[in-house]
Amino acid sequence: MNIPKVLVADPVSERGIEELRRDGKVEVIVKTGLKGADLLAAVTDVEGIVVRSQTKITAEVMAAAQKLKAVGRAGVGVDNVDVEAATQRGVVVMNTPGGNTISTAEHAFSLMMAVARKIPQAHASILAHKWDRKSFEGVELHGKNLAILGMGRIGTEISRRAIAFGMRVFAYDPYIAPARARSLQVELLEEIDVILPLADFITLHMPLTPETHHILDARRLALTKKGVRIINCARGGLIDETALAEAIRSGQVAGAALDVFEIEPPPAELPLFQLPQMVFTPHLGASTAEAQESVGVEIAEAMRALLLDGEIRNAVNMPSVDRRTLDAIGPFIALGERLGRFLSQISAKRCETLQITYRGTVTNHDTTPVTRSILKGFLQTVGGPDVNIVNAPALAQSLGLKVNATESNAPGDFTDLVEIRACGNGLESSVGGAFFGSTPRIVNVNGRFVEARPDGVLLLLENRDRPGIVGQVGSLLGQHNVNIAGMSLGRTEAGGRALTLLNLDSIPPEGLVANLLADEDIYSIQVIRL
Description:
Elements: E1 5-8, H1 14-21, E2 27-30, H2 36-42, E3 48-51, H3 59-64, E4 70-73, H4 83-89, E5 92-94, H5 101-117, H6 119-127, E6 145-149, H7 153-164, E7 168-172, H8 178-183, E8 187-188, H9 192-195, E9 201-204, H10 218-223, E10 228-232, H11 241-249, E11 253-258, E12 278-280, H12 289-309, H13 323-344, E13 353-360, H14 368-383, H15 392-398, E14 402-408, E15 416-424, E16 427-436, E17 439-445, E18 448-452, E19 457-464, H16 469-479, E20 484-491, E21 497-504, H17 510-517, E22 522-529
Parallel strand pairs: 1-2, 1-3, 3-4, 4-5, 6-7, 6-9, 7-8, 9-10, 10-11, 11-12, 13-14
Antiparallel strand pairs: 13-15, 15-16, 16-17, 17-18, 19-21, 19-22, 20-21
C-alpha cells in the first residue's frame, strides 16, 4: 500500500499535525523555514505540501516535486503559491477560507473602534506620562455609515457586528445576490464610486487581483466623504499607500488602520508611519489561538481527503467535490475518462470543438468534475500521462479546443447518458456511455447503437453490412491468436455502412490490421486502447 508523504513547511497547530498523522495512513515530515536548495531537496518525493504564508511554493519548487498532488495553505489567501504553475502541472491548490473568519472579522472591527477612538495614540500618551484628553476626542460608531467592500464570509461577519452597534451598512460586491444582501440587512450598491461618498467608515474584505489592485487609489479616495476612516485587514495592495498618506495629510481621510501592507514587512521609510492618525498591526487578522488551531485542522482534513479519498475541498484552481457528490458522480468520472480516451482515438487530430451532453439523473449533480475527467482522457494522447483533471482545461485552452457542456432533460433510451462529440477538419466523431445497472457501457459510436465494455483493447471497424463479414473478421483474429471477449454490431440500415466493435484480450498485430483492410468491404479499422 502506498502511503502518501506530506511536508509541513510552515508552523501549523499541533492538532493539525496530529490530524494528518491520524491512523498512520499519511507520512508527515515537519521541516519549517526551508529555502532554496534545502526546500527543493525536501519536496522531491512528497505528494502534499502544507504551508502558511512564509514558504513560497514557486514553479521551481513544483518542478522539483515530481509526485506533488496538492498544496494546502493554512489560511485564506494563496499569495505565496504559484497557482498558475500548479494548474499547469495538475496540482490542486487548497486553502481554508472559513478557519479564520471570526478571528479576522473581530480584528477588523477592533481596528475600526481603535481608529474611531484613537486608542493606540491615547495609550502611547499615557506611557509618555501625559494626560491629554482633548487631543484624543473620537467619534461614535452608532449612527454612522459603514461601507463593506467585499461581502464574503468576513464581510458578512463584520456586517452583523456593525448592525449590532447601530451602524447603517452599505455593501459593494459584484458577486453577491441581492436576496442575500437583503437577508443580511445591508444595502447593496452596484458601483464602488457610488458607495464611497456615503461612508463614514470603509472596511475592505476582497482578494487581491489585477482588478482589485489599488481599488482605493487617489481618484477614489477623493470621492470619499471628508473625514472618512478606512480599515484594511484583507490584502496589502488593495489601497494605494502613497495616495492614502496624501489623503490623510489633506484631511480628506481622518484616519486609517492597516493590518496588511503592499510589502511585508513594510519598509521603515513608509510615509504612513509618519502620520499620527494611523493605527498599525503586523498582519494579525488570523493570529488567535482558535484560528490557528482551526485552519491547521481544516487544511489537514482537506489534504487527507484528497490524498486518501480523492475528495477535493476548498480548491482554488478547480471545483470542490464533497464526499456526497463524489459518491454520486464517481462512476461517471471514471466512465467519462474512458469515453474521452476512446473519442480521442477515433476523432480528427486537430479537434476544434468538444461538445459534452449529459442526460438523466446525472444532471442532478454538479457535472464539472465529469467534464474535467472527459477532458483528461481526451487530451492524454496530446499531453501524455501528466494531464489530469486540474490542468486539462488549461491545456484545452492552449490548444484552442472549445469545450461546451450542456444538460438535457429530454427523454431518451437510457436513464443516464454521457455523450461526447468532437469536431475538427470538417469531420465529426462521437461516443456515448451509459450504465446498465452499475455496469458502464459504451452505447453508441458515431450515431450507431452498440454495447461494449469501456476497458482494455477494442477493435472498431466500419464495414459494409453484408452476410459473412463478421465470421471473416473472427477467423482472421483466430488465425493470429487474438481472442474476442465481446462483440457488438451497429447499423442504420440493412446493406449500408455498419460498425463492428470488438473487445479483445490482446492487441492485434499490424499484419492482421493490414489483412482486414485488404477487404474492400471494410472501410476503416482502428485499434483503441483504454
